[in-house]
Design goal:
Blueprint: E1 3-7, E2 10-12, E3 18-25, E4 33-39, E5 46-51, E6 58-60, E7 68-73, E8 78-83, E9 92-99, E10 103-105, E11 109-113
Parallel strand pairs: 2-11
Antiparallel strand pairs: 1-3, 3-8, 4-5, 4-9, 5-6, 7-8, 9-10, 9-11
Length: 115
């Protein structure tokens, strides 16, 4: 059975940091490209960051470049999103996404940036 479970969300002040984790099981994690998406209230889901199977290449939305960093641990079947210098506009539900021969979504974790 496939499980994709995000954790690490919460409430943080502007300028603060959070580290999201996504633990995967039930599929061959190291064969899947992994991504983080986010969806703010009233807005469409958008791609935040992605990383290829061996971690050798990453891609970021312009809005988070220089502030967010995606990484993965294939031995741990986990992908991470380090978020620094957070802004109120980063407030959203963050989703983990796995893509290869199939696609899998996590249930999301709420990130709220507010003073």
């Amino acid at each position: 059975q496939v499980h994709v479970v995000e954790s690490g969300g919460g409430l943080v002040q502007p300028g603060g940091s959070l580290r999201l984790s996504c633990a995967a099981s039930g599929f061959k994690f190291r064969s899947y490209a992994m991504s983080w998406y986010r969806q703010a209230p009233g807005k469409e889901r958008e791609l935040v960051a992605s990383i290829i199977t061996n971690g050798g290449s990453t891609n970021y939305a312009d809005s988070v470049k220089g502030r967010f960093s995606i990484s993965r641990g294939n031995a741990e079947n986990t992908v991470y999103l380090q978020m620094n210098s957070l802004k109120p506009e980063d407030t959203a539900v963050y989703y983990c996404y796995a893509q290869w021969d199939r696609v899998y979504w996590g249930q999301g974790t709420q990130v709220t940036v507010s003073s």
